[in-house]
Each structure stands twice: as C-alpha cells, then as structure tokens.
Amino acid sequence: MRCPHCNSPSIKRHGPRTKNPQSCYCLTCQRTFQTKERSAIFGWIASFLIILGISPIIINQALKLTVTLSNTGDSADAIVILGRGPKKNVDRTLVATELWQAGRAPQVFVSGMTDAPVIIKLGKDMGIPAQHISGERCSQSTWENALFSEILLSTQGIKKILLVTDDAHIARATLTFRGMGFDVVPYPIQSPLFTGQLRSSFRELFGLIFYSMSGKLQKLDPEQDQQERKMAQSKINRWGCSLAPKT
User: Which of 22, 89, 127, 160 could link 183 by a cystine bridge, Cβ 3.0 to 4.6 Å?
Assistant: First the structure.
C-alpha cells in the first residue's frame, strides 16, 4: 500500500488490521488518510471458501478418472442405465441407444423407481426393440440400484455391464455395483462444467463417505447378504418391480 498523496510506501496503520475502513499515517508527507483495503484475514477466509468449494469437484474427478480407466471399448452382457431425475433421462437414453446400436451389448436394463418406465419408453421410441430393453422400478438409492439389478440380471447370467450414469455419480455407482459382484465397465455422461457440479460433487463426496462407512462398497457377509436379498425379493414380488422385456 502507498500513500495516495505522495505515493510513498512508508505507511503506518492505526488500529487493528481487521478494521475496515482503516486509518493510516504517511511518514513521508505526514498526512492521514483512510483506506478500504481488505485485511489479510479476509483474503485467507476467501481462499478457504474457494478451496472448500472446489475440493469436492477435484476429489470426485480424480475418483471418476480412476474407475473409468477400465472403459476400453469392450462389449458387455448388458447396458445398465441408472435413473437420476427427469432432466437427465433423454441424454442417458440417447447414449444407451447409441451403445446398443454399436453392438456394445445385446440388452439394455434401466434401474430407478420413477425413471425406469420413462427411459424404457424413450428407448423404444429411439429404436431399441421391446425385447431388448427391460428394467426395475423399485430402487430408490444407488445401493438399491445395484441390489435389484443383480437379483434380476443374475437369473439371465448377466455379469459384465456397461454402467451409464452422469460423471459426478459414476465413481460411487461403479464401486457399489462392483461390490455387488458385477464386472463393471463405467460409461459416464459428461456434464457441462460447473452446471450444478458443485452441489453434485458435495453430494457424491458425502455419499462415498457414508457408503464406505456403512459397508455398501464391498461384498456383504453371507448372513447380511441373504437377509437383504430376501427383503428385496419380497419387495420385487409385492410391488411388481420387474419391467420384463416383451417378446
């Protein structure tokens, strides 16, 4: 900081640095003046808030890069689409349709309570034959996506899947489906930079922490696995969760 009168750097401050505006005295021209210069503490606070804001994005991008290294263009037994709200249904249906048309997998399976029926209809409208697209409409979380998908797809001998979801979600989704026993080829859909990315990254970071602490990123012990499958199968039978393909 320099004196506004003589441009001298020989300045003496009066009062604490956190006070704003601040009274200053020039030792060269011996004049007093006021400054609205922000103190260092506000700079540190601003820097901390910026780091706090972008760190979940950086962490999630690093995890996404780690899990997507296995996407080498291989074919799979099925394409699995995860529902993530009505705004994202068209994009993921379009991607899955293109993957199916490219011969990456013979079947498309959609998981999500409210999104599955909508995406299945969209898939048929985009050219996927009815006998090649199915799903389930009972799951309400990523872990339930994996559990219900495994129960319904294992009866068809499906183990290797192309997993389609948004890039913020792909790390947690991939780890959860792998914990359920799937051989997962992640296929993230790119989101526009910073369009809702901060909120999604915070959500996924806390989701990963919770899933890790609750054991949902690894295979369950036999007793717990049997209990969860029994409850899920009961829900499937009672609610008619399976959206089986029509021949």
Answer: 160
